[in-house]
Amino acid sequence: MAVLTGIPPQIVAPWAEVRLAAPVPVAEAVRERRVVWVGSREEMARRYPRPALVLPYHFAVAAAPITTGDTDRGGLVLLWPGSHPPQLSEHERVAIDVFCRHTGLLLRRAADSGRPVLPEAEPRVLSAYRSYTPSPGEAMAAANFAERLPGGCLALDPEGRISFITTAVAELVGADIPDLLGALPWEALPWLDDPAFEDCYRSAVVSRQTTSFTARRPPDHWLSFQLHPDASGISIRITPAPTARAENTPEAQRAASPVTPNRARYFYYLLHLAATLTEAVGVQDVVDRVPRQIMPAFGIQALALMTAEEDRLRIIGHRGYRTELMDRFDAAPLTSHTPAARVLATSVPAFYATFADLQRAYPPAVLQDDMAAWAFLPLIASGRTVGSMVLAYDRPHPFTTEERAILTSIAGLVAQALERARLYDTQYQLAHSLQAALLPHALPLIPGLELAARYLPTTHGVDIGGDFYDLIRLDETNAAAAIGDVQGHNVNAAALMGQVRTAVHATAGASPGEVLARTNRLLIDLDPGLFTSCVYIHLDLAHHSARLATAGHPPPLLRHPDGHTEVLDLPPGLVLGIDPSADYTTSEIALPPGTVLALYTDGLVETPGVDIEDAIADLAEHLAQAPGATAETLADILVQHATQCAPRNDDIALLVINVQQAGN
User: Are 631 and 451 in contact (CB under 8 A)?
Assistant: First the structure.
């Protein structure tokens, strides 16, 4: 934002910097190189729910791009009071076009001359009206005129600060004139520090319509405030209101009417909903969060969420409705003559304060849900309607203009959250299907070995990792086992994991050190930019022994037949993919029947704040004390122990090898 006039900077502060991809009128105007017109508050709520939440007032807005040739120079935003006609006039469109063309030429000329117009830390604020400096006599006459008026009056400048005040007002509010001049009213007078009062001021500034409220100056002085705005500021008339009743005050309205809270409470609930939905992961998470947030806040007794799938309307979640009733409406054709289908087809919300209203619009309608009022809202995301939301009330509910706009904004937030959630679910399913396809579908049956494997993807985000395990049958008495972890949590890591498994398979049967050395050289030739840790073991079942080599991987655990468990101390080897000349030392251990080998990735032992060596020692101790006799039981015990200790931040791969007598 470079230049501002006619509105206080604090009101439009959220748009001091706007991404070109943002869902706001000026960004859309620049992206699409056209004038964007929003003629009403309800239209703003439907098309741009986020701005509508911050400025839910009666106003119209036009946004236009400032361009020269193929170069985007900036954008223009114009606000009108809500009383503006529904469409821009031809004269207004011509004026906007002329201004944008001339401004674009000026900006290009400035850039070509080496003095481009650049944004500053704060926008430059220009006066929106012609100033007039009265003579001393005129100023005195104006002050005397104001003093003679019943009650009192004060003036706020374009930034909302008190620029003039009569002595009568100072007496009414209980403050001295010097303490009030230059201050914001709700800062100078603590009893006006209520979001509802400041909201009245914002409404007057943006909508340019007279607003009013009644406030109580402690202990029991009731005052009536009338705000009369124009481009130069706001004139406020303050008079005593001795007959003011508590129910006329914003505080009492909040307490007495919880189902129709004032705008300040709307802000709270809506911002809370927006923050909650940004944390939602997956469609089911959105479906669970929405009813919990909006039903108690807005006095809603029943809610249903529906999405369009092919030519049907599918109910993806509901609360307050009977399941058998929802089953009856689920999978209704999009062409059906129902409010939910109609809203989805037209993208226009529908509100019915009574069943009679609903029946007038849909004569065949039969009351089936024991409700008395309904709001049918389109779920619009990325310019298309993806579903509809039904809100139901158990009593007749007249929907005010403000409430309609608020509920429409809610539907916009829900639609955007659902669109993100559906994308998340799709990515999650594709990513983990890819990873599952790269892992062994089943372990081979090898006489003398009982095997169990576990793979648990992390529960955070849609990322997938490069953890893998494998067991390869070489001949009747020899097998190879491998476990590894490719650096990273993305599709590239999973793809490289598949290549590492292929390389290990291709060289299996050679000595463990040679298998790792060949795989290392292959990774360096591929140059993926990722590193891989790995343990490879050659199992000789005829001689009850094993040869091992490691490439920077967590050490295997070895439980002896007597239950004693140790962490194998293998000669260290460099992780794969760094040094083409790296050597990997092969070690040999005995594997008598009753021995258990546990191979794992670091997700099983890494816990924030815990030294990994201590965590590995703890896992070894747990394996030693595990009563399970089968590989499957031991695998379950180890995974359960790891996942109960702390939340997991990484994938887990585990391979348990239980050595038995041949033929068992």
Answer: yes
Query: 589-624 pLDDT, tens per residue?
Result: 999 999 999 999 988 888 767 888 998 999 999 999
Report pLDDT digits (tens) over 68-125. 998 999 999 999 988 899 999 999 999 999 999 999 999 999 999 999 988 887 888 8
| Spatial separation of the C-alpha atoms in residues 409 and 54, rounded to whole Å | 11
Strand partners, 379: 387
- At the fourth CATH level, which superfamily is domain 439-659? PPM-type phosphatase domain (3.60.40.10)
* Alpha-carbon span 3 to 69, nearest angstrom: 23
Q: In what order do the strands lie in the sheet with 332-333?
A: 332-333, 312-319, 302-309, 384-393, 373-381, 350-352
SS3 150: coil
Task: Give the distance, in angstroms, between the CA of residue 16 and the centroid of all CA atoms in the same chain.
Answer: 21
Do the Cβ atoms of 538 and 511 come closer than 8 Å? yes
User: How far is it, in rounded angstroms, from Cα 615 to Cα 607?
Assistant: 8
Q: Which amino acid is at 112?
A: D
Q: Can you state the angle between helices 401-438 and 263-278, rounded to 10 degrees?
A: 10
Decide if 593 contacts 544 (C-beta within 8 A).
Answer: yes
**What is the pLDDT, as a whole number, of residue 60?**
94
Q: Which two tokens stand for residue 362?
A: 């849909």
Q: Can the peptide bond before residue 219 be classed as cis, meaning omega within 30 degrees of 0?
A: yes
- Tell me, what DSSP letter sits at residue 311? T
> 3-126 — its CATH code?
3.30.450.40
Q: Which two tokens stand for residue 461?
A: 């985000």
Domain 137-256 class, CATH top level:
alpha beta
Q: Could you give the CA distance from residue 427 to residue 491 in angstroms, rounded to a whole number?
A: 11
**Tokens at 164, concatenated:** 């003039």
